[in-house]
Amino acid sequence: MTDSFRLERDGHVATLTLSRPEKRNAMDAAFWEDFPDAVDALSEEGSCRALVIASEGPHFSSGIDLGMFQNVQDDELGAAKGMDSYRFIKRMQRTFTSLEQARMPVIAAVQGGCIGAGVDLVTACCIRFCTEDTYFSVYEAVMGLTADVGTFPRILNLLPEGIVRELSYTGRKMMADEALRLGFVNRVLPDHDAVNQAAQELAAEIATRAPMAVHGTKEIITYSRDHTTDEALDRIALWNGSNLQPSELMAAMVAKQTGQPGQFANLPPRRKVDGRD
Amino acid sequence: MTDSFRLERDGHVATLTLSRPEKRNAMDAAFWEDFPDAVDALSEEGSCRALVIASEGPHFSSGIDLGMFQNVQDDELGAAKGMDSYRFIKRMQRTFTSLEQARMPVIAAVQGGCIGAGVDLVTACCIRFCTEDTYFSVYEAVMGLTADVGTFPRILNLLPEGIVRELSYTGRKMMADEALRLGFVNRVLPDHDAVNQAAQELAAEIATRAPMAVHGTKEIITYSRDHTTDEALDRIALWNGSNLQPSELMAAMVAKQTGQPGQFANLPPRRKVDGRD
Amino acid sequence: MTDSFRLERDGHVATLTLSRPEKRNAMDAAFWEDFPDAVDALSEEGSCRALVIASEGPHFSSGIDLGMFQNVQDDELGAAKGMDSYRFIKRMQRTFTSLEQARMPVIAAVQGGCIGAGVDLVTACCIRFCTEDTYFSVYEAVMGLTADVGTFPRILNLLPEGIVRELSYTGRKMMADEALRLGFVNRVLPDHDAVNQAAQELAAEIATRAPMAVHGTKEIITYSRDHTTDEALDRIALWNGSNLQPSELMAAMVAKQTGQPGQFANLPPRRKVDGRD
Amino acid sequence: MTDSFRLERDGHVATLTLSRPEKRNAMDAAFWEDFPDAVDALSEEGSCRALVIASEGPHFSSGIDLGMFQNVQDDELGAAKGMDSYRFIKRMQRTFTSLEQARMPVIAAVQGGCIGAGVDLVTACCIRFCTEDTYFSVYEAVMGLTADVGTFPRILNLLPEGIVRELSYTGRKMMADEALRLGFVNRVLPDHDAVNQAAQELAAEIATRAPMAVHGTKEIITYSRDHTTDEALDRIALWNGSNLQPSELMAAMVAKQTGQPGQFANLPPRRKVDGRD
Amino acid sequence: MTDSFRLERDGHVATLTLSRPEKRNAMDAAFWEDFPDAVDALSEEGSCRALVIASEGPHFSSGIDLGMFQNVQDDELGAAKGMDSYRFIKRMQRTFTSLEQARMPVIAAVQGGCIGAGVDLVTACCIRFCTEDTYFSVYEAVMGLTADVGTFPRILNLLPEGIVRELSYTGRKMMADEALRLGFVNRVLPDHDAVNQAAQELAAEIATRAPMAVHGTKEIITYSRDHTTDEALDRIALWNGSNLQPSELMAAMVAKQTGQPGQFANLPPRRKVDGRD
Amino acid sequence: MTDSFRLERDGHVATLTLSRPEKRNAMDAAFWEDFPDAVDALSEEGSCRALVIASEGPHFSSGIDLGMFQNVQDDELGAAKGMDSYRFIKRMQRTFTSLEQARMPVIAAVQGGCIGAGVDLVTACCIRFCTEDTYFSVYEAVMGLTADVGTFPRILNLLPEGIVRELSYTGRKMMADEALRLGFVNRVLPDHDAVNQAAQELAAEIATRAPMAVHGTKEIITYSRDHTTDEALDRIALWNGSNLQPSELMAAMVAKQTGQPGQFANLPPRRKVDGRD
Q: Pathway membership of this protein (chains A, B, C, D, E, F) (predicted)?
């Protein structure tokens, strides 16, 4: 089992923490396989209502592990096996797409440097909190690369296009205050402890909300982003025609009136057609 | 006839004012049918060149009327009639889509709380002015609901996606200053009178512009939002190939040179094929 | 040959300067044909790695030359030749689309007024720098026109939709500070000299990056803007499966370690099928 | 009230019959307004499960009434009011789009000539039966027109593109046997009586099927035609997640086992939000 | 392990045979999970160049197993768990989508009845051969269902839309000769042995072709079906820019000149990022 | 100037004839550049109303010239210059896309073998006539190639998908009778002279139709093929709002009443913005 991250559960909240601070949380080969498996398992199981992505040490992540990259270069790219590279990159994209497809909201708690694939990771999260000393760097072009595991399709919904282009051509650091001003991050906290605590509190708050309503909200925002207004309106109507849960409405109303956390059923876990696990 | 809003005309400017301040302008059943009919009539008639949406009392709107919602829950949803709910929600979506499809620009003048369906309404407007005490709350998830009458497809063009997600999962209030900073509202005014006056002045200014040019501009922005760059470029060329009016150009030039309001023909009113009204 | 702009080359950086300050750099008939030809030639030749668009005099551009417009009005539009107008507008759109399709990044250095077609031009650039006295005005509706050479499809990715609508219905000036706050411009510089220098420095920096990586980055951002997340992810994987250049990676690594500019091959020039120039 | 068609009901089957044989069922101005109103009413009411479109006399329809067309030419087109024409044509398109959007299947029973707008009409139907003496003619180009009320978007799903182009450029008659060979019509019957009877029998058979299942089938086929495979798969799953009716399944099973017509509930009628009719 | 089908390999050709003739090859719960796993494994492994889907007994398949369906009805649908049903149906869709996504061509060999989910299965195959006694029945509407595991999105590319609608509303049997006339099946063979032999021969022939070229062809046809002409042209160019294999061209040329089977490398097998199997 | 084809004009009809029968009309390097230039010139000039593509000798075309292909293999592909290949293939695609984008209809007159790029060519034509001895072969996979200059995006609208897949995986010859049965060709003529004469007669007939109406028809069919029904309906309305020509209607009516060819104005020729040729 990988030591590149660890999983913690606290009731309906889960936390995945990058745990190689001595490597500035560089993402090694095992990370790319194990991380999405962990996210998928949390999503499919049904009781996780909010996920925090955090990391140890002074920097969130320096991106892809250079050692791993060396291999790719020598072997696949050097031999010009376009098809193999294509499929390999798609496999790597799965790592962060898992965050977007997970049924529960995902909150990134960022400190220090968030570089290269680190940006790919946080753009696939729903919400970004960061420390005052955070900087984001779309560093791939400086390396002679075109970023390919998720930054570009997603970041255009998080920053104005002209800012995206400047950051991406140059690798320049976007500091926390600029990120806040433009809405790329939701909040800036003083330090690492504060950002972790704020992320946990937000996750805990979301975990008190009706899970079907929150899941539907996440899903519809993702769908709306990629479809026309008319198509999104139609899908929302069909979704709610199918999924509006009177029992959730009731529980939410009780929760609001009593000030107690709502008593909600979990999301239905994944079922195989033949009933096997 | 409904008492949930009233219509006023002043030359080429129309104002629809939500008029149930004692209910914080909650939208009752009659509102959902009568409001879009009023908007459509203004659009089709041809002489209205700008529309202001305002409201009475300290709050713009608390959203959907809870009484009406109770009925939906008991009857349609309790009986799990998915199809009926789907069609019912689509009927409700029509209420705010009418604002987007109207040929004239629509300006929202917002004060105090703008909650739930109130946000759906103002995101379907072209321009938002608000008071310093305004707050916006995408409140549906707190109620155990996924918002479905228009917020999500439209708000993603008005705010960065990460902000949208946070607001939508939590129902947190976005205050006027944050809304201004991120470009969600166009201007913040000191109080209710000031915001109403500013909205009227802007409407009056727009009403002095060439109506075909303004209508084309509204239409093309809406089209561009939902299509690729290439498709939008092509449509603009075809639209102007069809609709450029030398008489409007002349009138606009005269208006500019003389400093007098332009003398423009109205938009062509709706014609039925058989000439009946 | 036109005198409406001039071309300068400095190593891998090219600069196109609007050069009719006595006409506030209004775009005359020859400009619309010669400008895109110049941009295309730079793009196809292969050694240009960054392009700056600058202008002489106190204003960036007052937009389309009114004399040219007069002719269009009398002849084509007056005779209601919709088809001819459609094709003519598409021909004019080509002028700015050339900037978007060029393989190298394009930086606009703006001062004073940037009006009408001037806005169409700068929205087709990757990055916008401006002076403190700059203002942008989507002026077409004031002229009785619907803007049609590129502003609307592109500006919606640069500014929130509500701001776009207000600017476009009214022609109101957006000043440099508002443009910076909302991310429409990347930097505001004190004066004309400073903005030109900053643009040249950024161009020079980009010109030190791996050309294939930068070209791929420009291309993928443009593609992502107009496609769904899934489609963009797939295209990036296929693009890199085809175009990742180990030699570029190596050269970039050497450049980084030595602090010297990278030694990169130029982009492949355009080849005709039959080998003719 | 119009005399251009008449409506008959027989249980769950409705028939709309074009009834101006002395004018070869040319479509006059009143037809374009009254016909879609009649179709919409049948669709919204909920008990109609199949609709037949038939006609009196030796020819199905000669298309648009020339008298009506004369007016359009003189008034709207002569004055080059592009916007008015655009909206007028869209109003006319509604006439046949109503057939496609109706919740029940629509069967066309065709005899003799089916020309111009007659082809627009039958391409918006689900199923086409015709007599041996039927011919179809996309006649607009012969008239100096580009067909605009629905033929082109729909006929490309009914005939190979090369056949569509030949028919559309030339107006050549496609006879019944060619139409059958290429799958444009479902069956060819000997004469007018036979085609009407066959259409009624098919309508009666469809009316014995579960209405929700048939409506869902019609809707999904229409959706699939205009969306990618992935999008259509997703929508079908969501639709059935919402709309699968165990009571329909049971009733269908009983019907199959007993050989008796199924006892199915009607589709839910249209509800206004405020409960008014 | 399931007994609902069996796998045989013969060099580069694989055959999956439905093997419950006593149940008319009804698809039981285990089938829906095991079948796509088997197809995926063949696709990912890299040496399989053509796949035949065959079946035992007089009928190809009666579709979904009714016993399995009974459970779905009582449990999920009766409790109106829309979300669970939605996810369950998507899980079932995976079964046939695996055929479309497999890298090698898939040939269906059909005899006797091919009903309900049997049609879903064969429409996801590339090529259909059948016996003279074959009939296809889109039977879901007769059962009170809207078909949801893949027929509608795919069959519209295999049959004219009007034929699809008739078959789908009525469940009428389409016999082999009609299927051949309209191009739904590629060949009609006299009997079960003949159709199996013909399918094997075609598979063997395809297995002699260059695997990358055939895989690219399958992929591009699928892509073209779901995208515009311009997008498909661009993707083909990018695909071939990446994947054209000079060694395959050479081997194909040698094969053609010598009349011997080409000596081609297998497709690259799936690689995990961390090198694990 | 190339000798690979020649151009002939007869009034409003033009004919491009492949003229290297000794090479079975293989397409050499010069062909790929000169042919689209010739088509574009005919389209832009405005008086050509129908174009016939014919060829000399017993075979229509054996496709791409093998000599030319040899060079591509050694140079571009061997060096794995993905980007260069991508751009080169796009340049070659232009050759046949010119036929689709030309304003006048294009008719292919085919005899004998039509192989590889020959199929790419004829699928980009509007209408296909062929001789009894014609066969079509999508031959690329046999060569170890994925066809990339236009066949796949276009042929899916001309043949059922299953037929396309079989032809493309195997290279099997589709004979004239199968092509006619499935609607791939419009007519089969006895021999080379007959097919040329029939093509000329059809071209002459189309040349008597109103040019704007025919151009609009070609354009709308192409647009409809690549867009949803709703989008195509909207574009047709806007197109006709712009382009309906009362003078064409009148001339068409006179032509019909008198039996004389209509007296129509030519299409507007291409205009540069600055009036230069």
A: Lipid metabolism; fatty acid beta-oxidation
Query: Cβ-count burial of E45 within 10 angstroms (0-12 exposed, 13-18 middle, 19+ buried)?
Result: middle
Is the CB of C265 inside 8 Å of chain F's CB atoms?
no
* Candidates F87, F169, F226; nearest CB to E214: F169
Q: Which residues of E touch A87 (CB under 8 A)?
A: 268, 270-271
The CATH number of the domain holding residue A236 is 1.10.12.10
- Per-residue pLDDT at B29 exceeds 70: yes
Mean pLDDT, chain C, rounded, equals 92
Q: How far apart are CA E134 and CA E182, in angstroms?
A: 15
Q: pLDDT at residue A78 above 50?
A: no
Same domain, D91 and D144: yes
Q: Are C16 and C36 in contact (CB under 8 A)?
A: no
Does B41 fall in a domain?
yes
Range list of H helices, B102-243: 117-123, 151-155, 161-170, 176-181, 192-206, 211-225, 229-243
Together in a domain, F100 and F139: yes
pTM of the model: 0.96
How many distinct structural domains can be found in chain D?
Answer: 2
Domain range for C149 is 5-207
Same domain, C122 and C187: yes
**Last residue within a domain, chosen from D163, D192, D207:** D207
Report the C-alpha dihedral over residues E71, E75, E80, E81, rounded to 10 degrees.
-100
Residues A14 and A136 in one domain: yes
Residue D110, CB-side half-sphere exposure with 13 Å CA sphere: 35
Residue E229 shares a structural domain with residue E155: no
Can you give the length of chain A in residues?
Answer: 277
Answer whether A168's CB lies under 8 Å from A138's CB: yes
In a domain, E218, yes or no: yes
| Chain B residues near residue A164 by CB distance under 8 angstroms | none
The count of CB pairs under 8 A between chains A and D is 15
Q: Which of D207, D237, D266 is the last residue of a domain?
A: D207
Chains that touch F (3 or more CB pairs under 8 A): B, C, D, E
Which of D273, D274, D277 is the best mutation test for B, with the most CBs of B within 10 A?
A: D273
Cβ of F235 within 8 Å of Cβ of B238? The answer is: yes
Q: Do F257 and F165 lie in a common domain?
A: no
Chains in contact with C via at least 3 Cβ–Cβ pairs below 8 Å: A, B, E, F
Residue A54, both tokens:
């955090």
D138, D119 Cβ separation under 8 angstroms: yes
Contacts of D140 in chain F (CB under 8 A): 213, 217
A77/A163 same-domain check: yes
* E73 and E140 part of one domain: yes
The answer to whether A86 faces chain E, any CB pair under 8 Å, is: yes
Taking the C-alpha atoms of residue D85 and residue D103, their distance in angstroms, rounded to an integer, is: 30
CB B114 within 8 A of CB B173: no
Mean of pLDDT values over D220-225: 97
From residue D33, alpha-carbon distances to B201, B274, C59, D51 in Å are: 40, 7, 55, 18
F203 at interface of E, judged by CB pairs closer than 8 A: no
CATH number of the domain enclosing D200: 3.90.226.10
Query: What contacts F53, CB < 8 A, 6 or more positions away?
Result: F15, F16, F17, F18, F99, F106, F107, F108, F109, F121, F122, F125
Report whether F30 contacts F4 (CB < 8 A).
yes
Under 8 Å between Cβ of B238 and C86: yes
Q: What percent of chain C has pLDDT over 90?
A: 78
- Position B80 confidence tier, pLDDT thresholds 50, 70, 90: very low
Q: Could you say which of C85, C156, C170 has the minimum Cβ distance to residue B244?
A: C85
ipTM above 0.90, yes or no: yes
E271 belongs to a structural domain: no
The token pair that represents E177 in the structure block: 């000769």
F contacts of C82 (beta carbons < 8 Å): 242-243
